[in-house]
Amino acid sequence: MSNPSYKIALIGYGKMGKTIEQLAISMGHNIVAKFDSNNPLTEEKLLASSADFAIEFTRPEAAAENISICAKAQVPVAVGTTGWLNKLPEVKATLEANSSKMLYASNFSIGVNILFEINRKLASIMSSFPEYGVEIEEVHHTQKLDAPSGTAISLAEGILDNIPDLNGWSLHENLKEDADDIPIKAIRQDDVKGIHHVTYTSSIDKIEISHEAFNRNGFAQGSILAGIFLCKQKEAGVYTIKDFFKSL
User: Which residues share a beta bridge with 138?
Assistant: First the structure.
């Protein structure tokens, strides 16, 4: 029996959107709408597309409004944009009011989500070794506007959940002297898909875990599979990438 074909609306049609389009078509799905600055998203256009779900990769300042439009149209949406979570409470309220659903992720890559699990396990071990200092470094393409990356923040949160002596995280250049924060270096270089390092350093040695994306296909595949997962969920509201991976 062949896998079902889904009708997908793309919200954001830059490099990521084009990668999703190519992969989705190769998987047997249909792209029924493409929204960007030349074809702005509206509830009417989204409804007319008859999309089963939408995938949103745009900009931090646009994400919350795009999700709200999807909610009002009752189209499930997988959101890969980062840097907008300060608006999550109002987005959640809109989703619930419209009996709609979304899934958001700081990173849809399967490899990165494996890194998240390793990161949490390593942090729980390192909590017994305070002589090691920890830092995070992330490198992305120059078009990425938010810093640090959502993935770096997720890594920091995984460490903070397991090392209670740390207070929070700060961008490296903003780190206050004697602050018990995790420093995050955010570097922007041409045509870098995404590199993340977590490093523990003592006077004796260094321990490091890392992930490097060679292309955008991992993010695209994860977002498509997350959208399909959303379509199968009966409950309205907010889902995370953890919910998706629990279903695998």
Answer: 186, 196
Q: In what order do the strands lie in the sheet with 133-140?
A: 168-171, 181-188, 133-140, 195-201, 206-212
Alpha-helical segments (H) within the chain:
15-26, 43-49, 60-73, 88-97, 110-126, 150-160, 217-231, 241-246
Asked whether residue 245 is marked as a ligand-binding residue, the answer is: no
Q: Pick the range with the lowest mean pLDDT from 16-25, 26-35, 135-144, 195-204.
A: 135-144
Let me know if 196 is a catalytic residue.
Answer: no
- Asked whether residue 36 is marked as a ligand-binding residue, the answer is yes
Catalytic: which of 7, 34, 144, 197? 144
**pLDDT of 198 above 70:** yes
Type of residue numbered 86: N
- pLDDT of 227 higher than 60: yes
Mind listing the pLDDT tens digit for each residue in 128-157? 999 999 999 999 988 776 789 889 999 999
Residue the block writes with tokens 């993010």 = 219
Tell the residue number behind the tokens 């990165």, with chain if given.
Answer: 112
Residues 6+ apart with CB under 8 A from 75: 9, 46, 47, 51, 52, 53, 54, 100
Residue 53 marked in a binding site: no
Neighbours of 168 (CB within 10 A): 11
Q: Count CB neighbours of 183 within 10 A.
A: 18
- The 10 Å Cβ neighbour count of residue 248 is 7
Domains of the chain with bracketed CATH: 7-108+216-246 (3.40.50.720), 110-212 (3.30.360.10)
List the Cα angle 78/60/62 in 5-degree steps.
80
Catalytic status, residue 232: no
